[in-house]
């Protein structure tokens, strides 16, 4: 059986991991260049030797997004509400902002 891997948030100063905070969601960086650039700038990181975005292993946790960044939908067979990031969402709640990342 495959072992579950833990996801870690890439925002500097954030110590969230999916195994420690299973109630959080972890979002992959956008694939498109402009969206990715906006996320990197928003979390105050710079791609280079110390930070590389790897598909399937580089994430930002839900603590850095507002409720307005999400679209709510219903999974009709079970009536479960599903939260998905809006395509234009950018992390805006950061550890260095007053009250940021405290949800």
Description:
Residues 97-103 have low confidence and may be disordered. Helices cover 10% and strands 17% of the residues. It has one domain. A hairpin with a 4-residue loop joins strand 3 (70-75) and strand 4 (80-85). The chain has 103 residues and is mainly beta. The protein is built from 1 helix and 4 strands. A two-stranded antiparallel sheet has the order 1-2. Strands 3-4 form a two-stranded antiparallel ribbon. Keywords: DNA-binding, Metal-binding, Zinc, Zinc-finger. This is THAP-type domain-containing protein. GO terms for molecular function: DNA binding; zinc ion binding.
What percentage of residues falls in helices of 4 or more residues? under 10%
Q: pLDDT under 50 segments (min length 5)? A: 97-103
| Cα-atom radius of gyration | 14 Å
- How many separate helices? 1
Strand order of the largest sheet: 1-2
Number of strands: 4
- What proportion strand? 15-25%
The major sheet is characterized as: 2 strands, antiparallel
| End-to-end separation | 34 Å
N to C succession of SSEs? EHEEE
Number of domains: 1
> Regarding quaternary structure, how should these chains be classified?
single chain
- Structural class category: mainly beta
Overall pLDDT confidence? 84
Give the CA-based shape.
globular
